[in-house]
Amino acid sequence: MPSTAFHLALPVDDLDAAETFYGGVLSCPRGRSSPRWTDYDFYGHQLVVHKVDSEDLPAVARNHVDEDAVPASHFGVVLDWDDWDNLQSRLKTAGVKYAIDPKTRFAGRQGEQRTCFVRDPAGNHLEFKCFRNPEMLFATEGFEYK
Prior knowledge:
This is VOC family protein. The protein has 146 residues and is an alpha+beta fold. Helices cover 16% and strands 40% of the residues.
């Protein structure tokens, strides 16, 4: 495990549904658990889902990015180009509906990337992306946003 692994805790209203999504569809290994929470290895990072009542799940605010209403509160992972393709196949096979369909963002420009958004069963948004040029992940020069 990398020493810079992040820890993220999310509210869910159904731990079994979270297990099906994170453990099954996304193939995240399960870690410790209790009747109220479960840890997952989310691509080398610690993701903890905490059981809450459904009325306590947060509302979704959005921000416009490249013609999409992107959920302002989301998390995800930057994958290799081929790994992103493999994930798309798994998501489609599992029948996961996209919150924002797979697309190429900033096509032909600095920072070109493929991205998609899905929701877990509790409504938490996840973004999966990959960059044509991985060095653009934190680039600040030569990036023009319209």
